[in-house]
Amino acid sequence: MGDFNGLDVHLGNLARLSSARTYSTSAENPDGAKGGGARATEGVLSRQARDLGPGWKIQPCINLAPESTTTLAEIDGAGAITHLWITVDSKTWRSLVLRMYWDGEETPSVEVPLGDFFCNGWGQHCQVSSVPIAVNPKGGFNSYWQMPFRGGARITIENLLETEIEGFFYQVDFVRTEVPADLGYFHAQFRRSNPVPYGEVHTLLDGVRGQGQYVGTYLAWGCNNTGWWGEGEFKFYLDGDEEYPTICGTGTEDYFGGAWGFEHPAGQYATFTTPYLGMPQVIEPSGFSDNQQRFGLYRWHIQDTIRFTEDLRVTVQALGWRRDGRFLQLQDDLASTSYWYQTEPHAPFPTLPTKDHLEVV
């Protein structure tokens, strides 16, 4: 791989110099201005820092007003987001919506509940140790997806709740640099089928138009039946495929890089998190009024990118077993986040579910 003004960074070229310049937005420097950090004289920790003055952690975080949208970064010109870090109370992870807009577009290219974007869709912390997403104790969300833009970028967070959310910490790291013509724009979309209608499939993506590549899947899977749930196939319909797909997997656990029901040792699910795929979260009923097994799974198509030139549709079957050995079409709760790059403009996203439909109950 070659260097292009600081956007392509890996161990083989870390020593190569670049004309790119690095900036960052946060509560301490909301505009991302050069030399603009740690200048606050009033903030959420003014009382705690009253003896220290500016530069001593006066405004490390913000509060999110009820039913409001807050801008986390607004950047002019060309460059790329290189890293996101966010942390906030886990009870809010499905009630906050992360959106990203490139080059002044009116509709977002990214629209995902905060926890699901970072592979923590169930409102309970789980460790994720992968290449593009890292989640560290206790709820430190990190994204290393490269997100180039040519005419500007805007990142927002919407609070769907009727109450204020205190203590929202964030940092958006980016570079200003020229962006080569052959780089696509980052997209991420959330969809939930709760439940999957009997006899139907869960659609992760549909109506994607243009040239691009599919680079990742996160799936928060909630079981509404007892027994094994992962026989369903992932299918990728590429460039005019209609009834039958070009890419068809052999089972849900196979798609996420596991096998034989993720069972290890016997009678137990084994969690795992690796650079490109994993099942980092298994939630099993353990107390009064608890029910429904819940799982969090991811797969990143980084070494095995799925490329398309015209259109893309992605589905997964919810499939288990009947007691007599026949397949059972399940009516489970599937919430997916799809990640891909493509040319703009992108097709409009489906309307995001309401806060009640997003809620984990």
UniProtKB/TrEMBL annotation:
InterPro entries per the UniProt record, alphabetical: DUF2961 (IPR021345)
UniProt-listed Pfam families: DUF2961 (PF11175)
Name the UniProt record assigns to this protein: DUF2961 domain-containing protein
